[in-house]
Every structure is written in structure tokens, then in C-alpha cells.
Design goal:
By secondary structure, the chain is of the alpha+beta class. The termini are far apart.
């Protein structure tokens, strides 16, 4: 690692060589002696109960060791996540729910056995209820939404201010169900020791510590008797942020058979069992003066959840952060349906919420004849509108100005015609909160002059190992190539999950404090390290739990230029630019990769990604990468990512904000706004597929929308 640069300079990921040579070992790469393989049986009805499971044909196949059902599967202990209470009773809460598990000596034989299981259901003759609409009679307003935010907030009298406004817009937008599809599907290898008192699991997870806690409860073990390894993870994006059915089933099968068991979920199963971004229906009402300054902002969201666990996408929450409006209303309504439980998907809440809000702001700019960049600047708040707290830093205007300069805005805004294609450019703002979680870390000084830091962080491909070593080196005042970071399993000092763009801030804070403490110990010894080394630890729980008097958020501005083929209806993004204000950028190389990756995800949301629910069977119709279209290289244009310098002393000791998700937040709105500029038509439901584009173009000229 000689020559590894200091914090704030670009550094390649330390595990890069392992990954490109195939030496990095993922969850399914661990094959203990005597390992068996499991394959789950998914329910083919959306609601009902299991009447009978016939396993005779499956059990008779060669190599089959067991076929578990609710009648003979191990009994599970308590859990707050009902999606993990597998094979415990006869209920079927949604299509794809696991009703049996085949175990055999090869993956192929396990799959054949699963296919041979015959299941009889009782649905009561009722059709599944999977359609979300605003007036659904089963809808209600929850107390809280994801993230612990109140479901409803109001400042002033937003609706009265709206009615009195000289300019009024009442707009509706829709975002369909969306799915995480990490390159590495969910997989786990479970090993019990000989007496069944200790469990070791290799799991594709964003948080080994949380998996350990849940497994210990489910299987009646003390946490110290469970070790979970998540050393390398091939993508997560939120769907690996909590324990999923695969790891519970693998542990159940290993306990039942007395042998190690490996289970890798088929990709076709992922939409039903590892969470999804719930569909959201948005009503956005903007009241403004003729110059575009807001007097009222009301953002109301309707979404769905399952019948077994409430999860409410916090899509109206970003409107509480963004713009100054004397009247501000944000509210959520949720409808329980016969669907799988939604969950985290990269930048939950902010991504669909900001799509609707930033599309509405663009429509307001057109209505009052103000440039969209200038409109956002005019509505810049002096404090967070919802809480009244001052911002620790707010670089949105700087991002808008710098982005406009780099993009050539407004000269490139359009619309224009080029080679028969309609072209135009759009802009959108983005925001994401600063989340910090308690963490512990240990730092070691070794006699050979090197250092080691240990923390149960999970590197999901973002370069966490590298940046934590850089944080440690910065705190110790030594070159980074003398520091090794150890992450990826639950026996290390406890850490939060890799989610909410909170990892670097949370883990880095603990690493920084442990290294500062170690540096003090070394100073007292004149730098001399004893033969058995020297160590120091840190626990940030108390510091993190102190409520900050500041509103802490990252911000960004994203620009896009698109072309639209009026004959085929195809939309192509020609170029994208993002400029972000995210505190101190600790590793510019991996940060730029994160920003670009987020914008690519937003591009997919805008143009290709959606997953309709089959109203007859209650299942998602797009269950593989042939039917669920994510962007490929040919879809991705020239993408630039830049940032403005922020020196925010009200964050963690490094002065950093999370960057993993803010790149996604504004991308879809920027593309949708560019489409509207190119065509003069507004499509208010994603994605912008050719059929919708052709229908919008056929509707004629003008600002109308669909």
C-alpha cells in the first residue's frame, strides 16, 4: 500500500485487486465440508393459507436430504420483522411467500426437489387486492413514516395560503414500484458447531451486527454465540440493509440437517422477498406570487404497504427541507394491500418525493416565466422550514450556480431540433439528510510501526475499508500505508448498517476517536510501542445521541440534456451533470464513483425501471433482468460529477456528509424536466417509456401532461 495518499486525496480501493482477480470471497463462495444446498418454494397465490404440502415426490429424488414445511421446520423465537417468521404456520400474506424449503447435496438437485413439491392453497375465492389508488377505502394516515418522521406536519395554513395565491398549481405525479437488483443476489452459508450451541454465518448483508442480533433472537442463542461474516458484498442499495429470508432459511436448514447449508436466492425471487420501493402517488399544490416566490407548498403522498408489517415511504419529508413557504403541509397516507412488505431502496423517500417536488417546481417556473435555476434561488430558505433550525451548512445555491456555469445553462436549455430529434435540457435540486449512528472502534499500534483499526463496518463496494484507513491515518498523523482497516464481521466492535449514507460518518467518527486516544497513549510513552502492542477504543453512543441544534443535510443540483425521437418515442439522455455540497470529500476518487453511480440509478428510474403488479395473481411481472430493465452501458451518457467545498464544523470530526444516495435523488426529475423542455409535453408518471412518449406527443402542442 506504499504511497497511499492522505485523507482528502484520491485513493484506489484497497480490496480492488482481490475483486478483479476473483480472490475476494462473497457469501456463496464459502463451501464448508459436507455442505448442502437449499432452494425455497414460493407461494403462487397472493393471499390465503396452505391446506396441504405434498413432499413425497421431492423427498424421493436423488440427493435430497430434507424438505422442510411448517409442519417440521425448527420453531423460531421472537422478531419484529414478520417477513422472517418463515415456515411457522399456514398463512400466505403475499405472492412469493416461502411455504417450503428443499435441501439436497447439489444446487441442481435442491431446485429439482423444490419444483417437485406440490402445494394446495385456500384463497377463499377472493381476488387479490394489489391496486393502489388515492381513494382506496383501506387507506389511513400512519403515526410515523420510515426514518421515524411524523407522517403529517404543517406550518402555517398551507391550504388557505394556496387558495389566496395569485398563481396556483395542483399537480399529480406517480412513481411505480421499483426494485433493487444487486449484481450479487442474496446468499448465505450457515454452519452450526457440533453441539449446536454456536452458529457461524456468511451472509450478503449491509450489516453483520444486525443479522447477528436477529438470528440470536430467532434461534435462542446469546449474541456472543453467533458470528456473521459480510466481508465482501456485491451491492445492496438498501435491500440488504435488514436480514432477509434467505439467511433465516439457511440457518433453519443447517440446524435441521446438522450440516452446513448454502442458499442463494434466484433472481426471480428477489422482487417478492427482499423489499421494493413502494409505488407513490403524489399531489403537489404550489401557491406563488407572480415572481415565483412560494406562499404555499402542500405535498401529500399515498403509498402501499403489506398486511403483515407497516413500511411507509417518507416521500413528502423532503418538502419540509427544501423551500421557503409560509404555508407548508406534508402528509402521508398508506394502504395495506396483498403485496410484499416494501423496504429501503437507495435514498428512500427523497428519491420519489424529490421527483414530484422538483417536477412541480419546473412547472411553476414555466407558469410564471422564470428560469428554473433562478426560481429555486428565489425560494431559498434562511432556516429549515419544518423545524426552524439553522442549517449547519446549505450549499444548494452554490451547486445551482456552479452547475449552470459548467453545463452552459441556460443557453443549452432548448428546445431544439437536431437530426430530426427533439432536444432540451432540464435541472433539478436534490437533498439528503445527515444520519449518524452510534459505533465503537478499536485502534492498535503494533511494534513494527504499523497500525490496525477494527470496526464491524460493512463495505458494500463503496470503498469503506480505504476511507476508514485514511481517517485513521489522519487522526494518528501517520502515512495511510501504515494503517490496516479490518471490517466485515460481527465479532469486531459493533457498528451500524451500511445504509442511509451514514456509514463513513458513523464508523469514521469512532475510528477517529479511537485513533486520537491511541495517539495520546503513544505520546505519553514517547512513541514507544510495547512488544504486545498498544490499543485504545472509542464509543460514540453518547456523542451521537446528543440532538444537534442544526438541520444537517447534503444538497445538490443536477442537469440533464435529452433527445426524443418523435417517430419511435425513444428518449435518450445525451449528458448529465451533478454538482453536490456534501461536506468534506474524504476520497475524491471513490466519491466521484458514488455520485456517478447514483445518477445512473436515477436515469434508470426515469427511463426504464418499473414493475407492475399482476392484478389477477398479485405478483410482480418483471422478475428478472430481461424484463426489469436497468441501464446498460449504451444507455449511459457522458456523466460529470463535481462538488463545492464545504467546511461544516457541526457534523462528525471529519466534516463529512453522506454521499452514497444524494446522486440518485434529483436525477429523474432533471431528465423529466428536460423531456418537457424538448417536447412541450409533460409526462407525470415514470418511466418515460416510448408508449407514453408517443401518447403525449399525439396529444398536441402545449404544456399539458399525462
Amino acid at each position: 500500500m506504499e504511497g497511499t495518499p492522505a485523507l482528502g486525496s484520491p485513493a484506489t480501493r484497497r480490496e480492488a485487486a482481490l475483486k478483479v482477480t476473483g480472490a475476494a470471497r462473497y457469501a456463496a463462495d464459502h463451501t464448508p465440508p459436507g455442505c448442502l444446498y437449499a432452494w425455497p418454494v414460493a407461494a403462487t397465490v397472493a393471499a390465503g393459507r396452505v391446506v396441504r404440502v405434498d413432499t413425497a415426490a421431492a423427498a424421493a429424488l436423488p440427493g435430497v436430504t430434507a424438505v422442510l414445511t411448517a409442519a417440521d421446520a425448527p420453531r423460531l423465537g421472537p422478531t419484529e420483522d414478520a417477513e422472517l417468521r418463515l415456515l411457522q404456520d399456514d398463512r400466505v400474506p403475499h405472492h412469493g411467500w416461502y411455504v417450503a424449503l428443499a435441501v439436497a447435496d447439489t444446487p441442481e438437485r435442491a431446485r429439482a426437489a423444490a419444483d417437485a413439491v406440490s402445494v394446495t392453497y385456500d384463497t377463499g375465492g377472493a381476488a387479490p387486492d394489489v391496486r393502489l389508488h388515492e381513494g382506496h377505502p383501506g387507506g389511513y394516515e400512519p403515526e410515523q413514516v420510515n426514518g421515524g418522521y411524523p407522517a403529517r406536519r404543517e406550518q402555517g395554513d398551507a391550504l388557505a395560503a394556496y387558495q389566496d395565491a395569485p398563481v396556483r398549481l395542483d399537480l399529480r405525479y406517480a412513481v411505480p414500484p421499483l426494485h433493487n437488483h444487486p449484481m450479487e443476489p442474496h446468499a448465505a452459508t450457515a454452519v452450526w458447531d457440533a453441539d449446536g450451541e454456536r452458529l457461524t454465518v456468511y451472509d450478503s448483508s449491509q450489516g453483520a451486527g444486525l443479522v447477528r442480533t436477529v438470528l440470536a433472537s430467532l434461534f435462542g442463542l446469546a449474541e456472543e454465540r453467533v458470528t456473521v461474516h459480510s466481508e465482501h458484498v456485491g451491492g445492496g442499495f438498501g435491500c440488504k440493509g435488514t436480514p432477509r429470508p434467505h439467511v433465516v432459511l439457511a440457518v433453519m436448514a443447517a440446524r435441521h440437517t446438522g450440516r452446513p447449508v448454502k442458499l442463494a436466492l434466484p433472481r426471480a425471487h428477489l422482487p417478492a422477498v427482499v423489499g421494493h420501493r413502494a409505488p407513490t402517488l403524489h399531489r403537489v399544490r404550489l401557491g406563488a406570487r407572480p415572481d415565483g416566490t412560494l406562499t404555499a407548498l402542500a405535498h401529500e403522498v399515498t403509498t402501499h404497504t403489506s398486511r403483515i408489517r407497516e413500511f411507509v415511504e417518507q416521500a413528502a419529508v423532503p418538502a419540509r427541507v427544501m423551500y421557503a413557504a409560509p404555508g407548508l403541509l406534508t402528509a402521508h397516507r398508506v394502504v395495506p394491500l396483498d403485496v410484499p412488505t416494501p423496504s429501503w431502496m437507495r435514498a428512500p423517500g427523497e428519491t420519489p418525493g424529490m421527483y414530484a417536488l422538483e417536477s412541480a417546481m419546473d412547472e411553476l417556473a414555466d407558469a410564471v416565466g422564470v428560469d428554473p435555476v433562478e426560481l429555486r434561488v428565489r425560494n431559498e430558505p434562511s432556516a429549515e422550514p419544518d423545524s426552524g433550525r439553522p442549517y449547519s451548512s446549505r450549499g444548494l445555491v452554490a451547486c445551482l450556480r456552479e452547475g449552470a456555469r459548467r453545463f452552459g445553462w441556460p443557453g443549452t436549455r432548448g428546445p431544439r431540433t437536431r437530426d430530426g430529434l427533439l432536444t432540451g435540457a432540464g435541472v433539478a435540486a436534490s437533498t439528503y439528510p445527515v444520519y449518524l449512528a452510534p459505533c465503537q472502534a478499536v485502534a492498535h499500534a503494533l511494534p513494527d510501526g504499523t497500525y490496525r483499526v477494527e470496526v464491524a463496518a460493512t463495505d458494500i463496494g463503496t470503498g469503506a475499508r480505504t476511507v476508514l484507513a485514511m481517517v485513521a491515518a489522519d487522526a494518528l498523523g501517520v502515512p495511510a500505508d501504515r494503517v490496516t482497516s479490518v471490517v466485515g464481521h460481527s465479532d469486531l466492535p459493533p457498528a451500524s448498517v451500511a445504509g442511509g449514507s451514514s456509514g463513513t460518518g458513523s464508523w469514521g467518527w469512532a475510528v477517529h476517536e479511537a485513533c486520537r486516544a491511541l495517539a495520546l497513549k503513544l505520546a505519553r510513552r514517547d512513541g514507544k510501542v510495547p512488544e504486545d502492542g498498544l490499543c485504545a477504543s472509542a464509543d460514540t453512543t453518547a456523542a451521537v445521541k446528543q440532538r444537534s441544534p442544526y438541520a444537517r443535510h447534503a444538497f445538490g443540483a443536477q442537469f440533464a440534456e435529452v433527445s426524443v425521437d418523435p417517430v419511435s418515442g425513444e428518449v435518450r439522455v445525451l449528458r448529465m451533470l451533478g454538482v453536490f455540497a456534501a461536506g468534506r470529500i474524504l476520497n475524491p476518487l471513490t466519491a466521484r464513483s458514488q455520485f456517478v453511480g447514483g445518477m445512473v440509478m436515477g436515469l434508470g428510474m426515469a427511463l426504464t425501471e418499473h414493475s407492475p403488479l399482476d392484478p389477477a395473481h398479485g405478483d410482480f411481472t418483471a422478475r428478472d433482468l430481461a424484463s426489469y430493465h436497468v441501464p446498460v452501458h449504451a444507455d449511459v451518457p457522458d456523466i460529470e460529477a463535481h462538488w463545492v467545498d464545504e467546511h461544516d464544523k457541526h457534523l462528525d470530526p471529519m466534516g463529512s456528509k453522506g454521499i452514497g444516495e444524494i446522486g440518485t435523488v434529483g436525477a429523474a426529475a432533471a431528465i423529466g424536466n428536460a423531456f418537457a423542455r424538448a417536447t412541450g409535453r409533460r409526462i407525470r408518471e415514470l418511466p418515460l417509456t416510448p408508449d407514453r412518449v408517443l401518447a403525449a406527443l399525439a396529444a398536441g402542442e402545449g404544456p399539458g401532461g399525462t
